[in-house]
Amino acid sequence: MHLTMSALILAATAVTAHPGSHSSRRPPFQGDFTINQYQLYPENADFDFKTGKLYIGQLWNASLGIYDPYTQHHEVVDFPGISHNPLLNMGGVGVETRTGRVSIVANGPLEFPTNGANIAGDRWLISYDAKQKKEVYRVNLTATSQGKYGGFQDVDYDPAGNTFVVGSFPGTLTKVSKDGKRVTPWYLPATINSTNKGLTGIATVGWDLLAYGDESGELWKFDTRAEKGVPTVVPVSRNHTFAPSDAIYLPLKYGNKVLLVAHSAAGVSVFESKDGWKSAKYKGTVPLPQLDPGTVLVAPVQIGDGIYQIFAYFGDSGLGGQGTAGNRTQFPFHDISDQVDMLLGKCDKEHQRRSEDEEIPASHWYYKVHQRRSEETGAVNPASWYYKGQERRDEAVGEEIIETAGWYYKGHQRRSEQFEEAGLETAGWYYKSGGS
Ligand SMILES: *[C@@H]1O[C@H](CO)[C@@H](O)[C@H](O)[C@H]1NC(C)=O
Ligand SMILES: *[C@@H]1O[C@H](CO)[C@@H](O)[C@H](O)[C@H]1NC(C)=O
Ligand SMILES: *[C@@H]1O[C@H](CO)[C@@H](O)[C@H](O)[C@H]1NC(C)=O
Ligand SMILES: *[C@@H]1O[C@H](CO)[C@@H](O)[C@H](O)[C@H]1NC(C)=O
Ligand SMILES: *[C@@H]1O[C@H](CO)[C@@H](O)[C@H](O)[C@H]1NC(C)=O
């Protein structure tokens, strides 16, 4: 056995890290990155904060990817009978940090393109022990659904180690006991019609399970301790038009108080709850970057300290025909941490990541209360919006800045009085505090 010194140190770190929390020994990880791996095609991903590994549902190969963002090492786990089977895809993945177990869902290639009209075939939930590198169990979800519902696409856990699987055609929840032996159709809608698209994403917080994507456009909450799943509606304040959605996610860095929803063609919507998800507030949507045609947003995920958008490249033509992998090798992960922080009003020193040489010269005007003034003309151009948390100016002492913040906004959002804190528009420039 050949063990280098650094490998020994890493092994020791893994043992002493606090379970479920950031490993403080690992260097901060943030910023855009790209995984160079032929035919990776991620559909969903989950990060294990204990081991620092990113688990990826590799769509067309129907396999599990295990990526180490710190070393760029990538490992592929194939499942016999499932991986490279053209009748199966792999998507939803969730790691139970406490045990190191990874659940991954294998679904059919036709149900999403046919909007639930074709759900024929076997579907699987696999539990994989990432420490022992072995499959723990596999559940035939078609046996549970009797082939009447499908679109299984994400997983999460309750604190007792039960796994919940969300299906979208129609919206269902299946509960699987820790040992994989007891499989319960836990929530089913009144009418089972596979072409009624429903829930697309789930995320657990303690014993509660948040679910999203139902036709009603409501955010739902279930008590996982109940015998059967009964949804209650979480009232969401501030108007939000619900676009087609996919996975939802509660980033660790916000202590389960912030929910991210992937809106396929719109971006990551940000919701915040200050009362344990009795109610929530829509904070705004982080838009999508420029994308190739056919590319859609499938999931948000926290990796290290960063929040990332994951894309599916449905515009690529499959080398083996429709529903197979294309020829792509580069899979970029786009860091949206700053935008999410901004929508949450968390503007602190962490935002000073922009290097000094990228600085933009000071502007010739400034915002005072609600008016934009030009230094050249003195013209006052009243705006219907204003910046919040900028420099404090005191009317009594004139234009003087009496307090300068120790931080600045980068890519500031335009806020409207009408919509309060909505980030309506992102500016390509920023203020740097410092005075006149
Ligand atoms: C996908 O499978 C192909 C073989 O069909 C292989 O060349 C490629 O490396 C695989 N990619 C991943 C990410 O598993
Ligand atoms: C999975 O369950 C379905 C429905 O009961 C059954 O038809 C199929 O044979 C099962 N698949 C396997 C591989 O056992
Ligand atoms: C299912 O719903 C679709 C409309 O979404 C309808 O056309 C179809 O008749 C329904 N099927 C059944 C069996 O009720
Ligand atoms: C919310 O938005 C919808 C659709 O844009 C609109 O019909 C509705 O009137 C709005 N509700 C409020 C309270 O603004
Ligand atoms: C990948 O496939 C596209 C067509 O789908 C083609 O235009 C492109 O040249 C291919 N790239 C490589 C590296 O083979």
From TrEMBL:
Highest taxon of source: Eukaryota
Residues of the signal peptide: 1-17
InterPro entries: Mala_s_1-like
Keyword field: Signal
Protein name: Uncharacterized protein
Protein source organism: Didymosphaeria variabile
